[in-house]
User: Fold this.
Amino acid sequence: MKYNYPENVTRAVKENGLNKDAVWDCHGQWILKHSACETIAANRGITFDEPLIIESDADKSIAIVMVKGYLGDKFEWTFGEATPKNSKNSYPYAMAEKRAKDRIILKLIGLHGDVYSEDEADVFKDEIAAQEKLDKRVEQERVDTSVYGKVGKKKATEEIKKLTPLFAKFQSDDKKMSDEALKDAKGINEWAKKHNLSIVQEKYYKLFERKKSA
Assistant:
């Protein structure tokens, strides 16, 4: 089985008999499932003191607890927080406890900072959503600066196709028809200038302006 995680993450996954799907890449941040954290705690013999309630407001869905955990003679402590600002879970106390315990587990095995538990993933959601919005905007701007601009390929192509039959009329011996065709072609060229469509302007130049200057 091939793992693409950082070396310390790969080692923890293998040593605890976890499936490779226990960890996933969330926009550059490694996330470990809560069940995987529990498996690691059970395998390594990690224990916890009873959580200390720091803040509690059930009506406002706020729960903040402090938890201390042990691995042999090593111990760590941390907070678990669940508020409307960082969690949409309907059980804030359970979420706060899970977050605290998962952090402790990751701290005790030396992975915290490199990996976060899925219960903390809500914390990243706003950041991820903001990044996705930025990525989408950048992609749109990249497309908008293409040869078809914001108008799009379909509309630009339609206007380009109009120029060829207009050029045929422009070459007519009928002066009125020729003048009307040139007027229409110039209108398309002005529209292209307005929308910064050089591909349409180039077609106009090749058909009409080059003939005039020849």
